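Q: Got a minute? One more chain.
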Amino acid sequence: MKAWPKVALGELLRRSDESAVIDPAAEYHEVTIKLWGKGVVSRGKVTGSDVVSVRRVVRANHLILSKIDARNGAIGLVPPELDGAIVSNDFPSFKFRDPDQCDAAFMGWLVRSTPFVELCKAASEGTTNRVRIKEERFLDQQIALPPLPEQQALVARLDALAEKTRQVEAHLAAVERDAERLVRAYIFQPPNEQPTKRPMSELVSQRPPDVTVDGTVQYRFAGVYSFGRGVFPSVVKAGSEFAYERLSTVRAGDFTYPKLMAWEGALGVVPPECDGMVVSPEFPVFSLNTDEVLPELLDIYFRTPEIWPQLAERSGGTNIRRRRLQPSAFLSYEMPVPSMATQLKLREAHRLTQALKARHAAIREANAALLPAVLERVFARAD
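A: Always. Here it is, folded:
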């Protein structure tokens, strides 16, 4: 295969220095750049009156980079929806000198490759935590540039591959949503029965704290993610690092939540990997009456977004971010409980869904690795 000729970036790019004339009454998108080629996105909108330092305007299809994080892949093309957005001087942008020499879309793919990230590292200097890319050195770097028709052909193939990977991800997500809807139907619309609403006090029992804190002992805490993402292994802390005198041990199959964040979907059943960990008194812990309710039923029910507003209504406090769901309010909450026969069907459907997600995780990993591997192959051989 014929080698591509080398061209300095400065022959392809020219610094764009369009100053922003800020209207105090207008709103502007501010730009940020994700690491490792994940794209140029809006940081959010800001009112002109809140802009206190010099800003520049960026334009669609200009190349933009972060002086600090270009060496970590924070570089890309400005998307059309951010045309006219504003940036600080830490985000230099560049227009293309000649579109007949270098296709912007080709550069957009090139900058996502490992060889280009290495080029950015070579153009950076400074001490630890102060390493920044030097624009002159960056523009002096050379890349291998194929003829325009070959650039466009590569872009077409890479765009098609990217669309295929997006379709795979969308398909996996759709299948999982359908599977989760099927599982939830056993709670909210079980076949041939009407679930009985029962108070939580009939289904769970609160356990008091059982650990007396020793300042010399290390404790492994469990936490609960918001938005139905479940219980997870959290930090390890010495007893001397916190003020609580008592803690609660959690066991696999227990139910827990942080009082402060339950209204935001931070509730869940303790998974096996968190068995034996501890939580603070801000996390009430409940044992399940498994003759009446299976842990899978509780876990799925309280991960359902439509349920969280009901918990918010029971959470006390005047500040929306400081509302607490007290155990007494939780224990009086009523939830639909289908028959044990239906719960066992739910358990099996849930098991199959989790197995499906595990298989999908492997597919996702391979799917996510495909584009980077292709970029590595295409642009590494060009060096």
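A: The mean pLDDT is 94.
Q: Perfect, thanks.
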